[in-house]
Amino acid sequence: MKKIVLICIMTLLCATHTTADEFNDNNTFAYEEDSSFNIGVKAGILGFGFDISKSINDFVSVRFNMNTLNYTTTDNSLYNKYISAGKTFNLDTKGVLLDFYLLQLRVTTGLYLNNNTITYKPKSGTAISLNGVDYDLDSFAKFESTISANKVSPYLGIGWGNNGSREGWGGWNLTLDIGLLYHGTPKLDVQTTINDAIPAPVQAVMRANIEAERKKQEKEISYSAFLPVVMVGLNYTF
User: Fold this and answer.
1) According to CATH, what is the number of the domain 36-237?
2) pLDDT tens for each residue of 72-86
């Protein structure tokens, strides 16, 4: 049986004019195809980021993804219509993902370290409403609110663009990710400093109203346990 196998191999090599060394080189190249990796850049809901991917086999690759972005808009929804507030998005996520792909389509799952926050800071206005009571902003030396979520957030999504393929424009590929990041029930933290000139009994009432307002606002944002994610990118496979 061994002699028959050897004869078949030698016949194949002769027929294709391939030496034994060339035959080994071809096998090595096939292994490298399975062991390819790539780097990429992307932008979307999670901010600007980059990927580092490593192909495990023809169907699975492991990916490290990191995203960040800080920007501020004007939004009065957390306080009242009289308040002009700066709404600052501090986006910071780092994730380890598994891509299960077939051709250019893939399913992605993994975990993110989620440091995303949204901070509100009143800029101007006549009064701020806390538990139905209006307070002059001059009553506070500091007043800001921060929305945060679970630090560890599972992700599930679908995508286009094979992170483990050399096919494309000379190794370049466009990518698209659409999915959901489960960050749990958002938490609202209010940081305040009341002016010392205000009498202590009044300060106590103010703090009670601040806490009551915090609980009410936290309940109103409790529905958003999932963050929809859309990211587009460009990567290069080595």
Assistant:
1) 2.40.160.170
2) 988 877 776 667 788
